[in-house]
């Protein structure tokens, strides 16, 4: 077994597909390929997967991902149609074309593969986004420098996390019982110090099994994971896109956005938040020279 191998854990019935991040003497450090989970396992408990697309776990995830993406695209088509109707009914600007200003995203990710997938989805949905791959422990310091530079409307703080297996009973609400929740909390606090208004800067934070309550208390608008479950790699991105395309005149529909994620209500939660999308009139003319 070597770094980069795709594996499943026998003791968990092969429920999650992992990539081997590091091989130690008797254990391997694992990162989920679809879920933002950081784990370790004894090497004898691991089984190498040759055809990942044929596994039951991958097939189930693919179905959920397709459903979530289809809902995202349908919502976007409906918004464009509604915008066209609103502008058409505005008598003074009857013949004017509007332009759109979706909310701008700054996405920090502890996993480079997930970051690439996230940026592809932002691009396909025409969401202005800047992504950066870095270790979760570096996010607070980097965010402190980047926020004044990029001045985003939405910040995504994500990567890998997990509840420690060897925690003592009753310590589920201690940040010390999580692999990266403290790092996420530190980054959220930096973001909230930069912009205290939760409608002025939307913060989406967390990964698999993250300390939901601590992230909300630190200042995030949306966070994982209320049920301490695995969240899909694209769940934070789905919420960011929804925030980017919800009008500044409207509150993001909590039920709609949470149930539209792949993980659902046990995976992601949040508070009432105004959107960051604007339309303008008239559409600027392209000038040459």
Number of contiguous helices? 7
Helix amount: 25-40%
Number of strands: 13
Number of domains: 2
Oligomer kind: single chain
Rounded average pLDDT: 88
Strand order of the largest sheet: 8-7-9-10-11-12
SSE-based structural type = alpha/beta
Distance between the termini: 59 Å
What is the CATH fold-level name of the largest domain? Rossmann fold
The succession of helices and strands, N to C, reads EEEEEHEEHEHEHEHEHHEE
Biggest sheet record: 6 strands, mixed
CATH class of the largest domain: Alpha Beta
What fraction of the residues are assigned to beta strands by DSSP?
A: 15-25%
CATH hierarchy: architecture of the largest domain: 3-Layer(aba) Sandwich
Shape by Cα distribution: globular
List the SSEs and their pairings:
Blueprint: E1 6-9, E2 18-23, E3 27-32, E4 38-42, E5 46-48, H1 56-88, E6 99-101, E7 105-109, H2 112-124, E8 129-133, H3 139-150, E9 154-158, H4 181-194, E10 202-205, H5 212-218, E11 222-223, H6 235-244, H7 254-260, E12 269-270, E13 278-280
Parallel strand pairs: 7-8, 7-9, 9-10, 10-11
Antiparallel strand pairs: 1-2, 1-5, 2-3, 3-4, 6-13, 11-12
């Amino acid at each position: 077994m070597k770094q980069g191998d795709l594996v499943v854990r026998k003791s968990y019935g092969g429920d999650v597909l992992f990539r081997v991040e590091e091989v130690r003497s008797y254990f391997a450090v694992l990162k989920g390929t679809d879920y933002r989970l950081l784990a370790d396992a004894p090497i004898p408990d691991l089984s190498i997967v040759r055809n990942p697309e044929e596994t039951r776990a991958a097939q189930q995830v693919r179905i959920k991902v397709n459903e979530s993406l289809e809902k995202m695209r349908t919502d976007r088509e409906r918004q464009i149609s509604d915008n066209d109707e609103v502008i058409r009914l505005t008598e003074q600007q009857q013949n004017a074309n509007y332009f759109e200003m979706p909310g701008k995203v700054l996405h920090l990710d502890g996993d480079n593969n997930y970051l690439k997938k996230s940026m592809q989805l932002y691009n396909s949905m025409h969401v202005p986004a800047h992504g950066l791959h870095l270790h979760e422990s570096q996010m607070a310091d980097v965010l402190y420098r980047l926020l004044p530079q990029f001045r985003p409307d939405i910040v995504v703080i994500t990567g890998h996390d997990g509840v420690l297996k060897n925690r003592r009973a009753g310590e589920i609400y201690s940040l010390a019982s999580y692999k990266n929740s403290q790092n996420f909390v530190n980054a959220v606090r930096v973001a909230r110090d930069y912009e205290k208004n939760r409608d002025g800067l939307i913060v989406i934070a967390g990964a698999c099994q993250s300390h939901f309550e601590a992230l909300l208390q630190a200042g995030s608008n949306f966070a994982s994971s209320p049920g301490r479950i695995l969240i899909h790699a694209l769940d934070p991105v789905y919420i960011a896109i929804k925030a980017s395309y919800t009008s500044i005149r409207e509150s993001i529909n909590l039920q709609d956005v949470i149930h539209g994620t792949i993980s659902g209500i046990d995976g992601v939660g949040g508070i009432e938040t105004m959107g960051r999308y604007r339309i303008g009139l008239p559409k600027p003319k392209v000038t040459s020279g």
